[in-house]
Amino acid sequence: MSSPLANLNVTLPVLAAPMAGGPTTTDMVIAAAGAGSLGFLAAGYKNPDAVRAEIAVLREASVPFGVNVFAPNPVPIDRDTYRRYAEAVQREADRFGLSLPTDPRDDDDAFRAKVDLLLSDPVPVVSFTFGLPDDDVLRGLQKAGTTVVQTVTTVEEAHTAAAAGVDMLAVQAAVAGGHSGTFTPDRMPTPVPLVDLVAAVTDAVGVPVIAAGGLAATDDVADVLEAGAAAVAVGTALLRAEESGASATHRAALTDAAFTETVITRAFTGRPARGLRNRFIDEFEARAPLGYPAIHHLTSPLRKAAAAAGKSDLVHLWAGTGYRLAQEKPTAEILSELAART
């Protein structure tokens, strides 16, 4: 099955996945391209002007790249449930002199404005996560010459995305770090090993696949490609890269023996995401409500303050299960080493 990536002169089948919130930088994307790979800007949580500025940097560098966008798939929360959780979290915020939002804030992460930007100034690849955009968005981008990639977590979601006419699928396993791209955040799909999930999706739909989730070793990458993926995308493996924008607190936690496992949590954002298990998760997970993006906006000031202060017990330490293999090396070297058996 031919892959649209070949048209972008992508010769290395290990791509740099988008990591919203800071870890992905333009330097990382440029470094990935220098290795023959493709990197994705993370448009999530950025305003359109910031996305436009990053695109301009990559155009100046004359490298192929993608842009990842959060597609609206809100998880509503009622005011009383939100306020009960906000009161509990506020006690942690008091340590930093913060006043957290007392009412839920809902938004769509400026989705339409970002789509309009990508339609008026087309980029090589656009990927979506959280939800499947409407047909007019998909067709508009494709008409502009953009390859459209949709994140899916099950065969059923793959069928839906393929029927919508996307060009590629980013197949994400449950072991992936950060937010799950599931269409149903209120009920996480049954975990399936990435190799099996890729094989099932490629058998079910005739759309090229980019595989993601827990890939931090050369053999694992080779196995997934042999299962039928056209490429793989790695994120956690790049968190300690020289070009990573991950906070010092986040980087240090990846090698800290005090952190022994990753878990899926909704305590930080109200939407399931995998990160290093810490005190905040232990204390708040049992009472954390679903509610995205309201819970994200609630805890965001606390997480930023804690990261700046080096308080890893209060930070969302997003990481996949292969986090111990993340290395402090140049992005290009990490990607090339992971592709050694391809």
TrEMBL record:
Keywords: Detoxification, Dioxygenase, Flavoprotein, FMN, Monooxygenase, Oxidoreductase, Signal. GO terms for molecular function: dioxygenase activity; nitronate monooxygenase activity. It holds the Pfam family NMO. It catalyses: 3 propionate 3-nitronate + 3 O2 + H2O = 3 3-oxopropanoate + 2 nitrate + nitrite + H2O2 + 3 H(+). SUPFAM superfamilies: Inosine monophosphate dehydrogenase (IMPDH) (SSF51412). This is Propionate 3-nitronate monooxygenase. Its cofactor is FMN. Residues 1-16 form the signal peptide. CDD domains: NPD_like. Coiled coil: none annotated.
